[in-house]
Amino acid sequence: MSRKRAPKKQINTEGWLTTWADLMNLLLCFFVLLYAFSTMDAVKFQQIVFSMAKAFGGNANVITSGGNLGPVPVNSNPGVEIETKDRQPGKVNLEVQKGETQKVYNQVKEFVQKNNLEAKITVREDIKGVVIELQEKILFDSGRSDIKPESLPLLTKISQLLSVFNNEIVVEGHTDNVPINRGYFQSNWELSADRAVKVVRFLVENKGVSPERITAVGAGEFRPIASNATPEGRQKNRRVNILIVTKSEGEK
Which residues contact residue 119 at a Cβ distance below 8 angstroms, ignoring those fewer than 6 apart? Predict the structure, then answer.
């Protein structure tokens, strides 16, 4: 009597696929979480996708909600930045802002020269725009914030100049570092702020400058343009600046 042969066990050679699929799902979830918790630069993200697609022999185009962005430029030299379309408008805007600052500066200088105001007004370019600088002795008595009556025609002239522009205007009050010894103000901060406010109120209430585009700032003694160690330096620091803004805060 012959023995029955035991049936051969079937070896499942595809079992590893289940483990592989689970691993891929976990990796996918991991990268999705990384993406969700991060703010990615669009250009860098596209470059990563391009590199991965190239490595796996796929298409390097990237699809977004706005459509196909096309091939992504890859920088073969990591020490040199590549130019992209996203960055070009910023460069153009910077050139436009420089041109606007120069244009405003030229107009202000021409106005000052035409009206023979060189002895009373200093004009210079600033990182935020164009500054019209007035020394303290022209507008105020020492330690006071009331505008001198004889300086009102000068402020009237300046208001005519400001009406030419639609730019934001910032009036800044500045002092030297000598502590104020009058009872009207507790510190140079209050003095500088009140002087700036008095100039702003005159321009708004008497000369029609829009209050929506003008601001008063008191800087006290903390933004000197000369040394406070000498009388000449302290005199330069006691001033009022009227800034015609041509650059926003994010573009300094």
Answer: none
